[in-house]
Amino acid sequence: MTRSYDLIVIGAGMAGVAAANKCASQGWNVAIIDALPYGGTCALRGCDPKKILRRGAEIIDSARLMRGKGIDEGGLSINWADLMKHKHGFTDPVPQNMEDSLTGNGIDTLHGVARFTDEKSIEMDGTRYEATHFLIATGARPRPLDFPGHEHLVDSTVFLDLELLPPRILFVGGGFISFEFAHISARAGSTPTIIDRGARPLKGFDPDLVELLITRGTDAGIELQRSTTITGIENSESGYQVRIERSGQSENLEFDLVVHGAGRTAELAGLDLDAAGVAWDEHGVRVEAHLQSTTNRAVYAAGDSANTPGMPLTPVAVFEGKVAASNMLKATTAVPDYVGVPTAVFTIPELARVGMLEEDAKDQGIDVDVRYSDTSGWYSNYRTGETTAAAKLLIDRSSDRVVGAHLLGPEYGELINFLALAMKLDLTTRQLKSMTAAYPTVGSDLGSML
Ligand SMILES: Cc1cc2nc3c(=O)[nH]c(=O)nc-3n(C[C@H](O)[C@H](O)[C@H](O)COP(=O)(O)OP(=O)(O)OC[C@H]3O[C@@H](n4cnc5c(N)ncnc54)[C@H](O)[C@@H]3O)c2cc1C
Ligand SMILES: NC(=O)c1ccc[n+]([C@@H]2O[C@H](COP(=O)([O-])OP(=O)(O)OC[C@H]3O[C@@H](n4cnc5c(N)ncnc54)[C@H](O)[C@@H]3O)[C@@H](O)[C@H]2O)c1
Questions:
Q1: Is the pLDDT of residue 1 over 80?
Q2: Less crowded by CB within 10 Å, the N or C end of the chain?
Q3: What is the Å distance from ligand 2's center to 419 Cα?
Q4: Which atom of ligand 1 is nearest to the CA of 321?
Q5: How many other β-carbons are positioned within 10 Å of the β-carbon of residue 70?
Q6: Confidence class of residue 74 from pLDDT cuts 50, 70 and 90?
Q7: Is the CB of 46 under 6 A from ligand 1?
Q8: What percentage of the chain exceeds 70 in pLDDT?
Q9: What InterPro entries does the record tag this protein with (predicted)?
Q10: What ipTM describes this predicted complex?
Q11: Is the peptide bond before 93 cis (omega within 30 degrees of 0)?
Q12: Does 120 show up as a binding residue in the annotation?
């Protein structure tokens, strides 16, 4: 039996669902497939559950910052099992709600692993499906590691579902996942260690602010080892024995849990893209700027599984999914606009960025005015007792426009959105400063940062 559609979307995460809904709303006959319960990484195994767990950590940290300032935090602690229940209260209903919403929009929701059989058809559980268009929106998975004992690592999905948080946790890799999880674990009573092979963790963020964050993390009980190579992991009765090498010296460390935070790669295994003549590499499906496969005109890709200039982030997956849908519907070649996409690492406090790093602006020959403020003593941070906060804004002197903004501080993951908007709308700092913010809010600090 063969079933035919205008569009088959593979992957019911952010990118896939955005595209499926848009095409169905224009009258297309659409099917969407997922191998796992509907919802994708962000809602079920990423952004949303992570930030629910972080809420517990924020409360502990906020109380500690107010020690001796009117808050007696003695006895305050995270009950991990209850916090997990709180997380499940959000995540558990997602798959059914999402599927109901898709079917309500007239979309066929299918379950299983999709595999291409030729340029315009796939096979799933013995049924053949053909379509005039396909969207590959299959997301990403942890990058395979090759040191002996790598199989002992658990991934971010397992960490976000732990029934108990063990005392000694190693996070392999010094990126988003390790920093965010280490900041949660430290406030939940564990002793986290992050090992990064490079000298500069969180490489995509401003190095001066990253160093401040690392010091703040050390004070919270997080150990960071840089320029360190893991040469092997073994399981023993007392825990995981991790062999490391740094500056030619070897050492053995012992942990109760070892977590993968060493990068992610496009999830394309099992799709048999070669059967469909779809070119791909570890960064994803090779696409033109308008998200159509470079080698199979029936296929588009969006989100983490597409090799695009966009970062592997939820908002990027959503707008790429919409742009791909629009191009499929209208046979156009519109290109996603990646200007002014902000990103935040949800450590405590959070680290945020939009636009260029200082080094990139200088490499590009832009005459930048670097406006750096240590905001730790400012009213907003005094109020909460936060000791570590700073802003670095990069302004193009010739145009008076923000070309990069880097923030570290409580609620700065919200503040970065103003700067992202300024970049998107091409506002001058003069225009931005003309905004009146409610007072006292973190937003009202922006004028002084500028
Ligand atoms: C721990 C963690 C925390 C994160 N936190 C943030 C954050 O705070 N903010 C942010 O912006 N981003 C965050 N991200 C990144 C964000 O989650 C992703 O960029 C986003 O979810 C990508 O969406 P997507 O639609 O491309 O893929 P996904 O949401 O991953 O969806 C892909 C879907 O495809 C399915 N699939 C794969 N292969 C097949 C197949 N062959 N057949 C059928 N189905 C298949 C999968 O089961 C999956 O459901 C985080 C990621 C992780 C791992
Ligand atoms: N807040 C957010 O938006 C958020 C949160 C989590 C994840 N994400 C997304 O998920 C992606 C993956 O996150 P991630 O933290 O796994 O990767 P990452 O790319 O942020 O960081 C990986 C780090 O691991 C290091 N590394 C790689 N191999 C190593 C090894 N063998 N030993 C030691 N260190 C090693 C790298 O040098 C790098 O510093 C991110 O790029 C991000 O786009 C976003």
A1: no
A2: N
A3: 25
A4: 25
A5: 7
A6: confident
A7: yes
A8: 100
A9: FAD/NAD-bd_sf, FAD/NAD-binding_dom, FAD/NAD-linked_Rdtase_dimer_sf, Pyr_nuc-diS_OxRdtase, Pyr_nucl-diS_OxRdtase_dimer
A10: 0.98
A11: no
A12: no
Residue-wise over 72-111: b if at least 16 C-beta within 10 A, else e? eeeeeebebeebbeebeeebeebbeebbeebeeeebbbbe
304 is in an annotated binding site: yes
Q: How confident is the model over 373-412, as pLDDT tens digits?
A: 999 999 999 999 999 999 999 999 999 999 999 999 999 9
Range(s) for CATH 3.50.50.60 in the chain?
Answer: 2-48+85-142+265-330, 150-262
Range 2-48+85-142+265-330: architecture per CATH: 3-Layer(bba) Sandwich (3.50)
Give me the CATH topology for the region 349-449: Enolase-like; domain 1 (3.30.390)
